Amino acid sequence: MSALGVELLINVTPSETRVALVENGVLQEVHIEREAKRGIVGNIYKGVVSRVLPGMQAAFVDIGLGKAAFLHASDIVPHTECVADVEQEHFQAGNIAELVREGQQIVVQVVKDPLGTKGARLTTDITLPSRYLVFMPGASHVGVSQRIECEEAKQRLKDFVSNYIDESGGYIVRTAAEHSSEIELEQDTAFLRRLWAKIQKRWQGDPPLSMIYEDLRLAFRVLRDYVGTGIDRIRVDSRQTFEQLDSFLEDFVPTLKGALEYYPGERPIFDLYDVETEIQRALERKVELKSGGYLIIDQTEAMTTIDINTGGFVGHRNLEETIFNTNLEATQAIARQLRLRNLGGIIIIDFIDMVQEDHQERVMQSLEAALARDNAKTKISGFSGLGLVEMTRKRTRESLEHVLCDSCPSCGGRGTVKTVETVCFEILREILRVNRAYDADMFVVYASPPVADALTGEESHSMAELEVFIGKQVKIQPEIMYGQEKFDVVMM
């Protein structure tokens, strides 16, 4: 690692928190959390049963939010591997009237946010996640994610984590732990035990209707998830958040405490490594390569496609050498862009066709090595008969584009808009259609300025022929608020 090392830059405002992971001066990941969109899923409350409904096999629980939350009998269960990584066991729910009573104080965790008139959905099956483990208070066993396919790895993880089972609870080993070290797992168990002890203390001392655990905010989650990953420096530009993080690290992640520092500089913290510019570039389709080649990245609902092109890179020897070097450089850029944009699901990479098999093998090896630094689980297949590489990357959160962008109001997310000429012809056909269906004295067309200009300019002859054909006047009115495809034909 160079002198720059690995840094976390944390930018905090009242409405938004952003975290940038920078490795050797180059932005690798961006995490964004907006205050208005934070839910309460994962929070733990000291609630009071306000009403029991035997007919519905459910109860309403007051957790201090003003709207009673909903607890079904099936959610009052023994501790199970009820997280996404592990197949849930099924239990026969008991009679709700035998499980809870009105006025009873009860510890519950939110599993679904309130929606409209409905209150939050609760469970008594408390689970506390860390980077590699999920802690299950009261349980006495270790479960391992079924998505870890290697039986040897499963047994290794189970054997090691079993050493930390005690009367406080059991664990689930998450998918992300497949390649974790014993030190990292030990750090996670220590973190979770300290966290559970703190929750128990609050349960004993806090009054009813209190929130006794809030699922970690972004800055805290990122620090939790980067335990043991070699972070050299953590800089935060908010004094209040710095003090909160300092206390958090003291209690739960003491190994990172020495890396934390407050950044008071007048220069915005995200300007230190040109992070703002890199975020903007990560929203573009085209990614320039230093050699002169480039990537084209298209994100769709079904999959992400990445196309590699040589561009202006001509190489020094021959075409095959140029293609190989461009593909080799592209593997590093692709791995970085997947992390930076947080692209998940199916990813299809269209490398430039290579004739030599050893070139294909070396490109695959380079891609695998570059992806090895990615915390998200990836799976790669070799080159297909069409020369494509298929891979998957586990979705951990929304992509950067989905967080920061919305569908274009003009193109509806297609990425293209109809040409001015196409819209002009649509307007001419619409006037004909309306004229046949209704009796009007004249028509007024409201359209975007470029379309209005075309109708009175290069397409004016077509408009004149139409007016002669229908025997009525058509007036063109530009509307600056209209997108290029929008128009209205109004009868007068």
Descriptive keywords:
Aminopeptidase; globular; 492 residues; single chain; 12 helices; OB fold (Dihydrolipoamide Acetyltransferase, E2P); six-stranded antiparallel beta sheet; six-stranded mixed beta sheet
Please mark out the parts with pLDDT under 50 across 5 or more consecutive residues, or reply none: 79-91
The radius of gyration computed from the alpha-carbon positions, rounded to a whole number of angstroms, is 29 Å
Query: What is the total domain count?
Result: 4
Q: How does the helix and strand content classify structurally?
A: alpha+beta
Task: Write down the CATH class of the largest domain.
Answer: Mainly Beta
Per CATH, the superfamily of the largest domain is: Nucleic acid-binding proteins
What's the pLDDT, averaged over the residues? 88
CATH topology of the largest domain: OB fold (Dihydrolipoamide Acetyltransferase, E2P)
- What is the percent of helical residues? 25-40%
> DSSP strand (E) fraction?
25-35%
Organism: Neiella litorisoli
Keywords: Cytoplasm, Endonuclease, Hydrolase, Magnesium, Metal-binding, Nuclease, RNA-binding, rRNA processing, rRNA-binding, tRNA processing, tRNA-binding
InterPro entries: NA-bd_OB-fold, RNA-bd_AU-1/RNase_E/G, RNase_E/G, RNase_E_G_thioredoxin-like, S1_domain
Protein name: Ribonuclease G
